[in-house]
Amino acid sequence: MSTSAASSSPPVQSSHQKGTNKPIDKKAKDTGSAHPLELDPRPEYFEHRIRIFDKLKTEHDEWVKNQPRQEIAITLPDGSQRKGTSWETSPMDIAKEISPSFADRVVIAKVDGELWDLERPLEASCSLELLDFEHPEGKRVFWHSSAHVLGEAAERHYGCHLCIGPPTEDGFFYEMAIQDRPVVNSDYPALEKVADLAIKEKQKFERLFVPKETLLEMFGYNKYKKYIIETKIPDGTSTTVYRCGPMVDLCVGPHIPHTGKIKAFMITKNSASYFLGDANNDSLQRVYGISFPDKKQLVEYRKFLEEAAKRDHRKIGKEQELFFFNDLSPGSCFFLPHGTRIYNTLLELIRSEYFKRGYQEVISPNMFSSKPWETSGHWQNYRESMFTLDVEKEQWALKPMNCPGHCLIFDSRDRSYRELPIRMAEFAVLHRNEASGALTGLTRIEQEFAALFQFMQDIYGLFGFEYHLELSTRPENYLGTIETWDAAEDQLKKALDTVTSKTVSRNLRFARFSEYLCNG
């Protein structure tokens, strides 16, 4: 077996698939697609992956069989205990003891605080939680498993090379490289049909630890998976893969017990993307979907989409001559006279609220040289998220946030500690070359954060808006020390807990995501 050395750069534009299996002439029935439902024969990598997986699975099962058995105590959230046997009793066994209907509803377990596959045997005495789809972590696992089903459907329909397929806040997506055709709306029924076939088969999700060198062999046909393995998995270590049906994917899991848990599956949209979000890398196809454990939930979701379409701000803005958008300035709004009047009224409202709370309004330039961004660290770490330009052989940038400019205002004269806290506010146009904000220095004290949260609550509450607060945590390329970040995050948590406890009675909803989301 040969392995590739770690690559210093991700894959760039090139043909990724040679000798693709030709599809049979039979067209996909009842899908409206001009292409076959599935490739026949299937891509060679199906058999290649399964052969390696089955060999390792046999070895793993034999290893589990030889582990010593002993009685273990399993503590449930209510404090009650169940008896079990190590390496035999699974969370699903406990769920079935509680109630067959409960076991049917549960999608994932939590063992000593760690998410755990329902069919995976317990290894020692532990605490156990059983989560259904309504639990945020249960929903995330359910949609993650559904992404694998989408990946399987895409491989069977397109013969594509998969990249990444995570859950999202409202479903899931999978990115893929397809050699000869783009994804189009007319493909959706075919993808849903193949996904339904996988769901009806109740394919088990099987977990397996695989060494890095074997992973490189297993996914040697796929340069995207290879790059992830080479750059993310240290030499001499292992990580997990999951199999469902013919699909074997690099994945930390966990997953639902089998695909049959998915009762409703729908493709929602598709778009173009770049591998790892870098425009210098391969252009990929991204397909989005959503799924539910009950068909009624999909019916409700479709109704929600219909109502949302009626309330689409782009539609309303154009119909009422408030504002519109144009591709010549993507993501930017053109305010018409009626919309401008509303905009200015809101501006005056916020200005008066700033005044009540001790803020002083300032105005700073829209464009700066690279120097303040170099001082703040943005230039070194977040430059790709800024709009930069050359001015007289120097690098400049449109400001993506106000804080460096406000720091320059603060530094414009000597200050006394008696002036603190200094609260600055600015109505400025900000420019960010990204989908979400980047995390900046968290230096304000806990009380200031609580006051800001209260400010948001007052303004949004005035208009009857519901909103979510997301807890920001340090990104991989953070500035400063871990100790500083831990202290700052702790202040944020305390402030968030305070404002959450105060607003429960007002029926405002808050969500906290500390591990997956938020860089700003």
From TrEMBL:
It comes from the Eukaryota. GO terms for cellular component: mitochondrion. Residues 23-41 have a biased composition (Basic and acidic residues). GO terms for molecular function: ATP binding; metal ion binding; threonine-tRNA ligase activity. It catalyses: tRNA(Thr) + L-threonine + ATP = L-threonyl-tRNA(Thr) + AMP + diphosphate + H(+). Residues 1-15 have a biased composition (Low complexity). SUPFAM superfamilies: Class II aaRS and biotin synthetases, TGS-like, ThrRS/AlaRS common domain. Residues 1-41 are annotated as: Disordered. It is found in: Cytoplasm. Keywords: Aminoacyl-tRNA synthetase, ATP-binding, Ligase, Metal-binding, Nucleotide-binding, Protein biosynthesis, Zinc. InterPro entries: aa-tRNA-synt_IIb, aa-tRNA-synth_II, aa-tRNA-synth_II/BPL/LPL, Beta-grasp_dom_sf, TGS, TGS-like, Thr-tRNA-ligase_IIa, Thr/Ala-tRNA-synth_IIc_edit. Its EC number is 6.1.1.3. Residues 70-132 form the TGS domain. GO terms for biological process: threonyl-tRNA aminoacylation. It holds the Pfam family tRNA_SAD. Residues 337-442 form the Aminoacyl-transfer RNA synthetases class-II family profile domain. PANTHER family: THREONINE--TRNA LIGASE, THREONINE-TRNA LIGASE. This is threonine--tRNA ligase. It comes from Trametes cubensis.
